[in-house]
UniProtKB/TrEMBL annotation:
NCBIfam families: PRK10917.1-3, PRK10917.2-2, recG
InterPro entries: ATP-dep_DNA_helicase_RecG, DEAD/DEAH_box_helicase_dom, Helicase_ATP-bd, Helicase_C-like, NA-bd_OB-fold, P-loop_NTPase, RecG/Mfd, RecG_dom3_C
GO biological process: DNA recombination; DNA repair
Residue stretches making up the Helicase ATP-binding domain: 268-429
Keyword DNA damage assigned: yes
Similarity comment text for this entry: Belongs to the helicase family. RecG subfamily.
Pfam families xrefs: DEAD (PF00270), Helicase_C (PF00271), RecG_dom3_C (PF19833), RecG_wedge (PF17191)
Gene: recG
Catalytic activity: Couples ATP hydrolysis with the unwinding of duplex DNA by translocating in the 3'-5' direction; ATP + H2O = ADP + phosphate + H(+)
Protein name: ATP-dependent DNA helicase RecG
């Protein structure tokens, strides 16, 4: 029997080499291939230039009015041009670097040209001559491909797959919803996405695909949530008196917001269900101490607690912090990272297994299968947005279903947070500790960089320290970015001999990184030049200035994170962005940073400024990736899909009804798949 889960290798014409090529695009099964949707469509429908919008891509048909002329400039570059009479309008058509098209352009003959329309000068920058007889009224799907797979080959494979499997494509969406929203059947949706009959049908298909994607995403999240709620978790009966003593002994008073979220967490810990809570709080809002309280509570109940950080530097910093915070208490800390020797790893995991270590700090080495826990009660993840839904689920399955607290400094707007992390409960720290001074942010052009160095010197003279961040570590031929190494040497010279400059980058061995970080913390280094390895979490209170080179190469969320590295103590702090943004969006990003330090405002602006195609950027900001749907522009649809998914899951016996069987099967397969990654 044919199944959409068949390997693409089952398709006629797809041999082992092609199977490998398809893998590079993330395509393994026939379904993957069928759901590999085009990134855009080129429409060859003949249009009237009077109704066309400036800069629009379109096809014009007309009579060739002048002999085509080729102008050559330099090696390999040339331009073919001719005049075309479209209705009563004369249009100038140009083609760059396609001189061979000259043969297809004959005086007095009719042709159709596809290209970009310049309405002001009545010019068409052609990309293609359209075959009038075969291409008329058609739309071509264009896919994102790579070196090992040509556009035409991919299109052919999709065609083969669709023809062979069309009969087994069942709609996953409940018929009721398809009717209610006037969606189309899955089979038609897939056909129209790849081989659209016309623009209207293509739009309908896209709407169905987006809704289906949102609905399935929500269904998975909520199915996980329901299953988790049914499972019995550990009831962590912590010692309230000991917890109170610990909180009183802290060197500062907790903020109202910190107290509130600690209460929410402690309530979850006691309940015999598995906690699954997201803790949101802007940079510097004091999430670490909240985690410390939750972990200490767990330890007083005689259980182990673990905290997972995205980088080794952060893990090491946490270990150090906690060692100080828990001094004199019955807390034994172990630091588990990927860069330990086999012997160290063996000794440490033995102590974790026998329970003599009760607070485990580490990177994702923590959730590897080789690590066994004696009695794990709570896992905390720091900087949650670095981890995906599957890793989140893997955490929960460690040991005896421990409680999970996920912390993130990415202040995605609450509506979106609830939808993106639909399987979790959300707590928010919406208040900074008292006495924090607002970080003053300014934006300089590259030619004003001297001003920045003077500011650095001023701060150093006050006894404060400075971060300098650059985007890339090695000179790259294609990107004109500041090189951290060069900059480091330049600054060393500039500040010698009074001040020490250090360099930190991702390619350095870990012990070297640690040594540099230690030296900076100890104020043996005053200026730290770094790539974004310091992006998250690092806490040095004496640092008062953050200088970011080529700031327009960073996303807003990242810039906000970077700025959060300063202003963590009593000092008035500053952030200087150095950038020559090339477009309006870049300029607005810089202005946003200058205007506000509120992470939620930054996040909202960030979402507004991004195009929906900016998937990578969305990932950065903690919003999950969707192939078709746009979780920002189509948030409404995402919310509707969320409540539809919830309604379905609450319908008695929904999963035994015949019409829902394809959906049940889909959920089962996805669930199995989460165990592979
Ligand atoms: P983040 O939420 O960005 O992880 P941290 O937990 O690193 O922030 O806290 C930032 C700084 O604020 C730390 O130096 C911490 O000691 C301090 N801090 C946390 N809570 C308070 C508080 N209630 N009052 C004063 N300082 C606090
Ligand atoms: Mg932190």
């Amino acid at each position: 029997m044919l199944s959409l889960q068949d390997s693409v290798g089952n398709l006629a014409g797809v041999g082992p080499k092609r199977v490998e090529d398809l893998k590079t695009l993330g395509i393994f099964t026939v379904e993957d291939l069928l759901l590999y949707f085009p990134t855009r469509y080129d429409s060859y429908e003949i249009q009237n230039p009077n109704q066309a919008v400036d800069q629009q891509k379109l096809t014009l048909q007309g009579t060739v009015m002048s002999e085509p002329v080729i102008a050559r400039f330099g090696y390999k570059r040339n331009r073919l041009s001719f005049r075309l009479m479209v209705d009563t309008e004369v249009v100038m058509v140009t083609f760059f670097n396609q001189p061979y098209l000259k043969d297809k352009v004959e005086l007095s003959k009719d042709i159709a040209v596809y290209g970009k329309w310049d309405a002001v000068h009545k010019r068409l920058a052609g990309t293609k001559i359209v075959n009038i007889t075969t291409n008329q009224n058609s739309v071509d799907a264009v896919y994102s491909t790579n070196k090992s797979m040509k556009q035409t080959t991919l299109r052919k494979f999709i065609k083969t797959a669709f023809t062979a499997y069309e009969s087994v494509i069942a709609s996953l969406l409940p018929p009721k919803l398809i009717q209610q929203y006037k969606l189309i059947e899955r089979k038609d949706m897939i056909r129209e996405m790849h081989f659209p009959s016309d623009d209207t049908q293509a739009a309908e298909a896209r709407r169905t695909a987006a809704y289906e994607e949102f609905f399935l995403f929500q269904l998975r999240l909520q199915a996980i949530k329901m299953e988790n709620q049914q499972k019995n978790g550990i009831s962590i009966l912590y010692r309230n008196d000991e917890l109170k003593d610990f909180i009183h002994a802290l060197p500062y008073e907790l903020t109202k917001a910190q107290q509130r979220v600690i209460n929410e967490i402690c309530r979850d810990l006691r309940r015999p269900i598995q906690m699954n809570r997201l803790l949101q709080g802007d940079v510097g809002s004091g999430k670490t101490v909240v985690a410390a309280v939750a972990m200490y509570a767990t330890i007083t109940a005689g259980l182990q607690a673990a905290i997972m950080a995205p980088t080794e530097i952060l893990a090491a910093q946490h270990a150090q912090n906690f060692a100080k915070m828990f001094e004199g208490l019955h807390v034994n800390i172990g630091l588990l990272t990927g860069s330990m020797t086999a012997k160290q790893h063996r000794e440490l995991t033995a102590q974790i297994k026998n329970g003599s270590i009760n607070l485990i700090v580490g990177t994702h080495a923590l959730i590897q299968d080789s690590v066994e826990y004696a009695n794990l009660g709570l896992i905390v993840t720091d900087e949650q947005h670095r981890f995906g839904v599957n890793q989140r689920q893997k955490l929960r399955e460690k040991g005896e279903d421990p409680d999970v607290l996920a912390m993130t400094a990415t202040p995605i707007p609450r509506t979106l947070a609830i939808t993106a992390y639909g399987e979790m409960d959300v707590s928010v720290i919406d208040e900074l500790p008292a006495g924090r001074k607002t970080i003053k942010t300014s934006w300089l052009k590259t030619n004003q960089v001297g001003v920045a160095w003077e500011k650095v010197r001023q701060e150093l003279e006050q006894g404060a320290q400075t971060y300098v961040v650059t985007p890339l570590i090695e000179q790259s031929e294609t990107l004109d970015v500041q090189n951290a190494q060069d900059l480091f040497e330049e600054l060393q010279e500039y500040f010698a001999p009074q001040y020490q400059v250090g360099l930190l980058h991702g390619r350095m061995p870990n012990d070297e990184k640690d040594a540099i970080m230690e030296a900076f913390k100890a104020n043996e280094i005053q200026v730290l030049v770094s790539t974004t390895v310091i992006e998250v979490g690092v806490d040095v209170k004496n640092a008062s200035l953050m200088v970011v080179y080529d700031a327009d190469r960073f996303g807003l969320a990242q810039l906000h994170q970077l700025r959060g590295r300063v202003g963590r103590g009593e000092r008035q702090s500053y952030c200087i962005l150095i950038a020559d943004p090339k477009n309006q969006v870049g300029i607005q990003r810089m202005q946003t940073m200058v205007e506000t330090t509120d992470g939620f405002v930054v996040a909202q602006r960030d979402l507004e400024l991004r195009g929906s195609g900016d998937v990578l950027g969305l990932k950065q900001s903690g919003v999950p990736e969707f192939k078709v749907g746009d979780p920002v522009g189509e948030l409404k649809m995402l919310q509707i899909a969320k409540s539809d998914a919830a309604d379905l899951l609450l319908t008695p016996d929904w999963d035994t009804q015949t019409e829902n069987l394809p959906l049940v099967e889909y959920l089962t397969i996805r669930k199995l798949q989460t165990h592979f990654d």
